[in-house]
Amino acid sequence: MSNPLYVINVEAAIYREDKYLIIRRSEKEEHAPGVLSLVGGKVEEKIAENNVLENSLKREILEEVGIEVSNAFHYIESNSFVSDKGYMVVNIGFLCKYESGEPKCVSKDEVSEVHWMSYDEILSNPKAPSWLKASLKKAESVRLRVEKTI
Question: In what residue span(s) does the Nudix hydrolase domain sit (predicted)?
Fold first, then answer.
């Protein structure tokens, strides 16, 4: 990427029944190596497309953990931070329902572990960073609202 104004990042709180898919980021990652995280990644520079956030997130999920999620994406939050390389990152989080596939570390350079964890397990895990816990609290609130409407 050649000196962008912003890097756009998307991430997914993927749920299956009462558990969320959590990854441990590879130690090779530039940003937050080795920490527990949601699945996600950068929106790639390419030609204009519709549903760029959703398509980017589905691609990242497949590339990183090898699973499919439903097409119903539920907005959780947006925030920004400065990356370790000094780029301003705009991060957009979505709630996604697991659909198919067995989660695994497809990209060892990006993901070192994959776990299905309950909401309470994540919140009580000392290795879960504060931003993950904050995002999960919002995701759980959205999930409970979505589940009520189904």
Answer: 5-139
